[in-house]
Write a structure and sequence with these properties.
Blueprint: H1 2-15, H2 17-31, H3 54-60, E1 73-75, E2 86-87, E3 96-98, E4 103-107, E5 114-119, H4 126-129, H5 138-147, E6 150-155, E7 162-166, E8 170-174, E9 179-180, E10 182-185, E11 187-188, E12 191-192, E13 196-201, E14 207-211, H6 221-227, E15 232-238, E16 243-251, E17 254-259, E18 265-270, E19 275-280, E20 289-294, E21 297-304, E22 310-316, H7 320-327, H8 329-335, H9 342-348, E23 354-360, E24 366-372, E25 383-387, E26 390-394, E27 401-405
Helix pairs in contact: 1-2, 7-8
């Protein structure tokens, strides 16, 4: 029987040379022998993702048809580089921001401007690391692992210490006066922390933070998305024993972290799967998880406001082609092995991102959605922090901060 099938296959290929050439070309693309594709040189293994159906999410989402986020203001343009996370200290000073050039900086007011508050490594030098407006481009990537890339920032309100999740140097802390940060965690379960991303501080002193991938670092973060790999972890650092524990694993691009107002649970974003997950810390569900919200785009950081609601930054939106890729990993194996630059492949797939932010309550109900479809204020967003009647909006990819009075004034 097997011999007969092989004979039929040979006849088909000989009688239909176009099929033969197609199969040959497809095989060549998949093997990518000259590593001409965007994933060339990587052990690229696309997998199927656990994501809510496209039509279900997009059809029920409360869109902001007025694109009200476009009413915001741009601040510090080309004066601050890739401010992923924003923080304010106990005295109300700030914002503090972690930059693409490896520094944590602090705004000192109009007269003094920005000052360097902390660095995460002794390797940092102005000559090596300070690329100015080029800090958010590929020029920085060659030195990023040496200079550091501070992502999540949190102040401990009791001690005044600033905790930092750095993409290359793990979890660190620096005192209220700043300076060189002290490393706290660089591995968990004998596995290196390859991509520390965000954190929050429990009232018992524990630090919950995300390690986005065991396979790819921050420079290669796009491979985590297109591959769909789920090796990320939620970790907990215990300051009493100075040990780091794995809380959850097998996560697909775990990103932002936020404890609830009473610290009975935490929320974290899973970027690849476009959702927010609740992890229970107390009560009958302690240690369990549930999906709180499925989102129309890719979430980054999540932050609580004074009312106990949660702002989430979203790069929008998912596309029908992405839905097809999710359910058919082999298509990604072929598509992303085409000898075409990644930016064009992403564009052909409909991935034209714009900024959306959403406010949801502790049950996952959407309270507010603000969009900037034209990119008038922000093209890619990483965090939203509500402070004293104003939204402060950070971005990992551009050289600015956006602000918007909130609640919005009705016209």
């Amino acid at each position: 029987m097997e011999k007969r099938l092989l004979q039929i296959k040979d006849v088909v290929l000989l009688q239909h040379p176009f099929i033969f050439l197609f199969v040959l070309a497809l095989s060549f693309i998949v093997m990518d022998p000259f590593e001409l594709s965007p994933v060339g040189g990587h052990d690229f293994k696309p997998v199927k993702n656990d994501i809510a159906p496209y039509k279900q999410v997009m059809g029920s989402w409360p869109w902001d048809n007025l694109s009200r986020l476009g009413q915001g203001n741009l601040e510090f343009k080309d004066d601050i580089f890739g401010p992923e996370s924003l923080e304010f200290d106990n005295l109300g000073r700030g914002p503090y921001a972690g930059l693409a050039d490896g520094r944590v900086v602090r705004w000192m007011g109009q007269d003094l401007g920005w000052e360097t508050f902390a660095t995460v490594t002794r390797n940092w030098s102005e000559e090596l690391c300070a690329q100015g407006v080029d800090s958010t481009t590929k020029k920085q990537w060659t030195v990023e692992s040496k200079c550091g890339r501070p992502l999540g920032l949190r102040f401990d309100r009791k001690s005044g210490n600033l905790y930092i999740a750095d993409a290359y140097y793990g979890l660190l802390v620096v005192g209220p006066k700043g300076g060189l940060a002290t490393p706290l965690a660089t591995e968990a379960d004998d596995k290196p922390i390859l991509f520390a991303n965000d954190l929050d501080i429990h009232h018992n002193g524990s630090i919950f933070f995300t390690d986005t991938s065991k396979r790819y670092n921050r420079v290669n973060h796009f491979f985590i998305l297109v591959e769909g790999e789920a090796t990320g972890r939620l970790l907990r650092y215990d300051p009493l024993t100075k040990t780091t524990h794995v809380v959850l694993e097998h996560l697909a691009f775990p990103n932002g972290v936020q404890l609830s107002k009473d610290h009975s649970f935490l929320l974290f974003t899973e970027t690849t799967n476009c959702r927010i997950i609740k992890y229970f810390l107390e009560g009958p569900k302690s240690g369990k998880t549930e999906v709180v919200a499925n989102l129309p785009g890719f979430p980054d950081n999540i932050r609580i406001n004074e009312n106990g609601d949660f702002w989430v930054a979203i790069d929008c939106c998912r596309t029908p082609m992405q839905e097809m890729f999710i359910h058919h990993p082999w298509l990604r194996s072929v598509y992303f092995r085409l000898p075409i630059p990644m930016r064009y492949l992403a564009r052909f797939a409909g991935m034209r991102m714009y900024t959306m932010i959403a406010l949801l309550n502790d049950k996952g109900k959407i309270v507010e959605v603000l969009e900037d479809k034209k990119g008038d204020v922000m093209k890619l967003v990483s965090e939203v922090k509500e402070v004293n009647g104003k939204l402060w909006i950070g971005t990992v990819a551009h050289n600015q901060i956006a602000t918007l009075p909130y609640p919005l004034q009705s016209h």
